[in-house]
Amino acid sequence: MSNADGLLRSRVNRSPGTARLALGDLLVMVGFLVMGELRHGVNPVTMPGRVAGTITPFLVGWVVAAFVVGTYAPGATRTVRTAVQRAAGAWVLAAAVGLALRSTEIFHGDAPWTFALVVTATGVVFFSAWRATVASLR
After folding, report:
1. How far apart are CA 91 and CA 42, in angstroms?
2. What percent of the chain has pLDDT over 70?
3. CA separation for the pair 122, 31 (Å, rounded)
4. Model confidence over 46-66: pLDDT tens digits?
5. Structural domains of the chain, count
6. Can you tell me where the transmembrane regions are (predicted)?
7. Contacts of 119 (CB under 8 A, 6+ apart)
8. What CA–CA distance (Å, rounded) separates 109 from 135?
9. What is the separation, in whole angstroms, between the first and last Cα of the chain?
10. How confident is the model at residue 12 (pLDDT cuts 50, 70, 90)?
11. Model confidence, pTM
12. Whole-angstrom Cα distance, residue 9 to residue 104?
């Protein structure tokens, strides 16, 4: 086994439950980001590119953060406390990456600093609630 394969196995559980968990995470992220877009008058049906441009940097951030934090590692949802800590930690890092990407010319951005606080706090609440629910059902 190579070092890279060992690292991947320690950070990503390859069970079918992990795929379902990742799908749930994606739905949580898309759900609260689309709610934010709607709140700001952006219609996802008539402006799908705008919505995709909002979601994509945070999705990239989530992929990076989930690996770093071990959000899909074996035991990541074994207890409610562990599940919430990993979800919250991953989202804080994912939001930082997403916000940094949004500050580039590749994605739309130029949001006020309050947006950073709101998107980070909202994500922590939504991901923590979702992951706590998953852990409590195990």
Report:
1. 23
2. 88
3. 11
4. 999 999 999 999 999 999 999
5. 1
6. 21-39, 51-72, 84-101, 113-132
7. 33, 36, 58, 95, 98, 99
8. 35
9. 31
10. low
11. 0.86
12. 33
